[in-house]
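re the bet — no i am not wrong, look at it urself. input seq straight from the record:
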Amino acid sequence: MVRINLRKAAYLQRKLSSLVKTYDEFNQPIRYIAGVDVAYRKGKAIGVAALLDYKDLNLIEYGIYITESRVPYIPTYLAFREIPPMVGAIKRLSIEPDITLVDSHGLIHPRGLGAASHLGIVLNIPTIGVAKSPLVGKPNEDGYIILNGRKVGYKVSDKLYISIGHRVSLNSAIKIVLHVLRNVVPEPTRLAHNKATEIKYSIK
C-alpha cells in the first residue's frame, strides 16, 4: 500500500475544488449517460463504467478496468483510492458519455472535492455525485444541502444524496438523476455496482 501525505492531499483537494464548474457545460440533448463504481477483492480494484442510452436507459456496454489497489481507504480521501480504476473503466467505453454519475459525493465534502468532483476535474468531464449517505451538511426543509453558504447538494431520500460534481448545475443534476432513478438508486450506478460485484466474486 502507498502511504498518502494527508496534508498534501488536503491541500490538493482545496486547490482543485476552486476549479469545479457549478454551471451546465455538457452536451444537450443528453444522449448517453454512464455510472461508475469500484469494488475491491484480494488486493485488486475493479472499476466498472456502465453506459446507457439516456432516453430509454437501455444498457449499451460496460467499461471494465482491474488494477492493483495501492491506496488504503481513508475517509474523505476516497478519490485517491478510486480515481485510477474509475478513469481506466471510463476510458474503456467506446462511446464518451455526456454525463457520468459517480457513486460518491461531489461538493458535499469537508474540503469541497469528493470523488465525483475530483474525477470530473481529472478527466474534464461532466459528473454528478450520487451517494447513499450524507458526508457533511444537513438538508434544509426543501431538501437542499447548504455548505459554506451555497447549495451544493440535494437529499432525494435517506438512501440517495445528489451533489454537484463538475460542469453540471445542481438543478440539472437533480433533473438528470430523477430521470434515471429506478427504485432507490440511479440505474447507471446500480448496473455498474452489480457488474463490479459480479467480477469481484469471480476473482479466486
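see?? The mean pLDDT is 94. told u. also The helical segments are 6-17, 79-91, 115-123, 170-180, 187-202. so pay up
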